[in-house]
Structures are given as C-alpha cells and as structure tokens.
Amino acid sequence: MVRQLKERTVDLAMAPFTISYERQQAIDFTKPYLDLGLTMLLGYEKKEDNLFRFAEPFSGDLWIAIFVSMVSCGVCVSLCSYLSPYGYNGRFVQRLDLSDKSAFDTHNMMSVPQAMWFAFASWTHQGAEHSPRCLSGRLMGGIWWLAVTVMIATYTANLAAFLTAARLNSGINSIDDLASQSEIIYGTVADSQPQSFFENSDSDPYRRMWSMMQLEEMETMVHDSTVGIDKVRKGGYAFIWDSAVLEFAASKPPCNIRTVGPVFAKIGYGIGLQFDSPYTEGFTLEILHLRQAGKIEQLNKKYFTGECKDTSSGTAAGESTINLSDMAGVFYCLFGGFGAGLLCIIGEWCWASYRDDDRSLCRSFHRRAVLTRKDCASNSTCCQDSDSGEEVVVYETQSPAQNNEQRELDYALEKQEHPKTLQISIKPPSTMI
Questions:
Q1: pLDDT, tens digit, for every residue of 17-30?
Q2: pTM (2 decimals)?
Q3: How do residues 69-111 score in pLDDT, each as one tens digit?
Q4: Backbone CA torsion sign across 264, 270, 273, 279
Q5: Cα(180)–Cα(187) distance, integer angstroms
Q6: What angle do CA 260, 261, 266 make, to 5 degrees?
Q7: DSSP letters spanning 278-291
C-alpha cells in the first residue's frame, strides 16, 4: 500500500494501517481512528487430572492449622464442661447435695469425644446432638462458629475458581514472563512494524526477545497474521501482533486462544494518503468528530465482540492458594477466644461460690476445688486401685444431714498435715455394701 501511494496510483489506503515514523516520511496519515498496541496470543492448555484438587484452595500448612484448631476447640470445650460449675460434668461433681443424682445421666454429654464431634459438626455446618451449656463453653463455641464461617466462605470462594477453571494458562502473564521462558517459542510477521519495533528497541526484554527470534527465525517468523494465529491454535507458539487483530481472532470460535498481558508499544491505525494530499485534513477532522461522538467506540464493540468470552487474561488471579499467613488473623482471634473462655471459668466459680448459702465465698470456692480434684484423681487412679487387690468399698448416704456431715468432715481432712495417709469414712450399718 505504501508503494501504491508513493506512485500515486491510489488516493488513499483503508486497512489496519499502522502509523509509523518510516511510513510518515513517504506518505501522509490522518489522526489515528483506533488506538492500540502490541500484545501476545496464546493457546489454552488443559489442566492435569487431580483427585485431590478440592484441597488445593488451601495450602497444606493451613489445613494442618485448621485440624489443630478443631482439636483444640474440642479439648477446651470439654475442659469447660468439666471445670465449670454450670457445665454438664461440673454441676454434677460440684453439687451441694451429694445424694442428688439428677445430673448424673448428663454429666458425660460433653466429654472429649463428644466435644470433638461438636467441633467437627460445627465445621460442616450440621450441628451436634449437644452444645455447651456453661457460659465459658458457649463463648468458645461461638468464637469457633465465627472462625468456621470465615474459613468456609473463603474456601468456597476459592474452590469455585479452582473447579470451574477448565483451562489453565501456561504461567505466562506478561511480556517479561514470555521472555524468561524457553518452552514456548514466539515470533511475529516478518518485515512488519512489530518486527521493526523489536529490532530497533534497546530496552529489555525486547532486545533479548529479538535475539531469540533471530536464532530460530524459520520457526518464529510467519508470512502474515493468519498463519501466526493458526500456528497458535496448534500449540507451542506465541504470536505477537496488533492487539485489535488478536482480540478479534480470540473472540471467534473455536475459542481455544486468548490474548495475554497488557498492551505494549502503543500504536494507532490511520488512513494512508498520498504525500501532501488535499484530503488529509478533511479525513482527520471527520475522524475526530466520530471519536468524540462515540461512533468509533460503538463500531468497536459491535465488530470486536464475538461469541468467546473472557478472551484476555492479564494474571492468574482467582486460582491462588490461600496460605496460613492469609488467615493468621482468624486463628489469633480463635485462640484468643479460647483463652477468654478459660478465664471465664474463674468467674463462673466465683459466682457459683457466692450463691452457696452454707459457707463463705473462699470456703465454698475451696470446697468446689476439692471435689473437682478428688473426681479427677478418682478417674485417673480407679484402674490402679482395682489392680492392686485392695478392697474397694462404696458407701451411699441416706440423708442430706449425713451428706453435710460428710462434707464437713472432708473439709476438715483437707486441713490436716497429711491428708493422703489419713482415711476416715462413715459406715452406717444399713448402707454398707
């Protein structure tokens, strides 16, 4: 076209005609009617099959942290149920009337296995059979629910990106990525404006890319843009050309190619005319009028929007794995809530001791501590007592008066110098087993 305009065999040239310095020396150009630049065209690659792809949204260390926090939640909730005077086990062990067996059937409802099931059921949003009944346990359970809500929402959002992405880019998201790899060859049209850009550029990575193109010129250079686009569809090749042409090709079926990275080497399309043509100013004014009126933009959307969607990919965002550092704040709040729940047990003990009418606050607090310690010791040494061959005698009192007498005697024994070596028990004849 430049030759025909120079020979004055035609008046003007209408095409994807790039305005360049060299051409401007020989012919006239109007103002650009379309601003564009150079970009890359790459093909899609299928993802490898992975049976455990559902776990990829979270990193391995994050899965471990979630498991540890789940176990910690179960242990802490069970501990609250055991120590709190309002927990399932605590209200039975620390009861005032030792003959009251009403809480015996429920004292193991929040044991360690049950609490583990509660933590796991909360993670799956299904709910367990029993929930904590004391304030400290409910505080821990509530913090765990909030943490689970955040983690499930994050996992679900990231899982959608992993499972619905049927195609995978090759890890090339910019011109620098393309220049830094050697698996995919790249090139452009021989003796074209893009080739001139790479050949005359002194900046990196364009100069380095031109050196690579020259090493394998037979494989990198093509005769025209159609050949380059077809070569991309076959795979293993990246074609560098005008962004408008490549975006138009990517928007058409079979939808197996896409443009990658931002536009570089900004250029423009203009109408070519003979040197010193009297029509140059008129065409330029009309192009400016159409651009200001939005007509050029309307034509661009009409003809450059095809059946293929999402034909450009600047980065691989949406498929990044969530690491432990990304969710660290959730675990800080979670374990902070566990600590607050354990401190809440002290408040529950003080309140329950204050409501005991038969003794002072300190004395009632001490009594509950003694009962809890004895229950813990009996649970840990019951098997040793049975294996030692000693006779184990169980007594059951008959009246609250005898229970109170036994409690007073137990409290008095705690004041002795050697409480572990002194054994005193009340054995009414009618209750010996």
A1: 889 888 889 999 99
A2: 0.49
A3: 999 998 998 888 888 888 887 777 777 766 767 667 677 788 8
A4: negative
A5: 14
A6: 115
A7: TTHHHHHHHHHHHH
